[in-house]
Amino acid sequence: xxxxxxxxxxxxxxxxxxxxxxxxxxxxxxxxxxxxxxxxxxxxxxxxxxxxxxxxxxxxxxxxxxxxxxxxxxxxxxxxxxxxxxxxxxxxxxxxxxxxxxxxxxxxxxxxxxxxxxxxxxxxxxxxxxxxxxxxxxxxxxxxxxxxxxxxxxxxxxxxxxxxxxxxxxxxxxxxxxxxxxxxxxxxxxxxxxxxxxxxxxxxxxxxxxxxxxxxxxxxxxxxxxxxxxxxxxxxxxxxxxxxxx
Length: 246
Description:
By secondary structure, the protein is an alpha/beta fold.
């Protein structure tokens, strides 16, 4: 995968995935780095990209993965009917990356109707990142200027932002005063953790009971957290343990 991820365009590079579908780890990374140093001058044939289309090694699982991913996503949609009636308007920016198509479909899967406003200047993939120096939503308001302007113009109170390869997320909410609050990663982690616990309890009634902690199908759930208070996740009936990380 060729990407600058959430970095400036000058840092365009590539990510390498191993046979298990995950990004490479030692010793594979060192082996690749050594081969690069031994082949710093590209061969003339390196620029012949047409061979990719005819190579027996080439596979394209895109359609299969798209369908499987959306099917799995639908299993997490518990309130599609309520979503269809929601008047809440979301603003979304892909930050010149690939996330737009996926977020549009995800909104449909979750039952939202016309609740979606894209930041048009940042919808299409563009490795030059012409409207933002650091396409990292975690930069906060400095990276969300266009999104905030679009949201203000369209009466939207919530912003969702991905980085160019759509593996980072920022969320911002407009307060009653008109200011924008950009949630920190810790705050989002706490909210997502609460939502997972809430939906688990709501859709697994058999784990509820009169006793404080009846035996659930999963007897324990372990959470890793750098800063989030353990009290946020110590909610029955499941027995939670929190591993504090630095």
